[in-house]
Design goal:
The chain has about 270 residues and is mainly alpha-helical. It is built from 13 helices and no strands.
């Protein structure tokens, strides 16, 4: 009886600690952003979110994050497939490199892009001769977003491929199905939940990126100024209410994406 009593108290304490941790690190900061954005009333909030420069920054961020996410969907799916289905020298090393963007400071990632693709680099100089620039333009922002969100789709797809029953593939081959037909009819549907969740995380991470982008974007208002850098500029200009208002747009967008994806996955057959 005493052991059961102690177990109940331990369970209650554990759950309370987890909930307190969740409230302090997640709920309170989110509530604080919404509160700060409305601290001066609805009129200043509306003026902040309807500012043309703010909307251009948000729309540019969303557009480039979508492009980076699409790139990661294709690259992440192919790389995850290769790392699971094929054996080759250096596979373990390459698999460990997938997580490098998680460990590398984003400012260092931005510096790498700047040095490798900048005007003084071989690639940057070649691009300039061909009539376009990479660094301080949209391509550099997309590359930075792709780099920092690179692992998400790969790591979401790999467990699904490992758990996939090979007998279904073998049965399809036995019945005369081609490799392409087997992939699109049997393998790909099993990978879709991982692709969707990985893409969702990649997009959310992309619209929030600051460290890598601020070094390579040029930060030209209306052209290469993305939302996170705009928010930083508002803080530097002593306008926390305006920064919070734009932050609310990104935060609400992330919530809508999260709930939409969860709704789609919950309505899948077999759920």
């Amino acid at each position: 009886m005493n052991a059961m009593f102690r177990n109940k108290w331990w369970s209650f304490g554990f759950r309370s600690t987890v909930m307190l941790y969740f409230i302090i690190l997640i709920i309170i900061p989110i509530f604080g952003i919404y509160t700060q954005s409305l601290s001066l009333g609805w009129q200043p909030f509306w003026e902040s979110v309807s500012d043309p420069l703010a909307w251009k920054a948000v729309l540019l961020t969303v557009r480039l994050a979508v492009i980076a996410t699409i790139i990661n969907i294709f690259l992440g799916t192919m790389i995850g497939w290769v790392l699971i289905r094929y054996k080759f020298p250096g596979k373990r090393f390459l698999n460990s490199l997938v997580d490098l963007p998680f460990a590398l400071p984003t400012a260092v990632a931005g510096l790498m892009i700047l040095l490798l693709l900048g005007p003084r680099s071989f690639v940057g100089g070649l691009a300039t001769k061909l009539g376009f620039d990479i660094v301080f333009h949209e391509p550099a922002i997309i590359i930075a977003m792709v780099f920092v969100t690179f692992p998400f789709v790969i790591r979401a797809v790999q467990p699904l491929l490992e758990e996939l029953d090979r007998s279904e593939e073998e049965a399809a081959y036995t019945m005369g199905a081609s490799r392409a037909l087997t992939f699109f009819r049997i393998i790909l549907p099993s990978m879709v939940p991982g692709i969707i969740s990985g893409a969702m995380l990649a997009f959310s991470r992309g619209i929030a990126e600051f460290g890598a982008v601020v070094l390579v974007a040029g930060n030209i208002p209306g052209k290469t100024l993305i939302a996170s850098v705009y928010i930083f500029g508002e803080i530097e200009s002593d306008n926390p209410q305006g920064a919070a208002a734009v932050s609310v747009i990104l935060l609400t967008l992330s919530f809508v994406i999260l709930w939409t994806v969860n709704l789609i996955q919950s309505r899948r057959p077999g759920q």
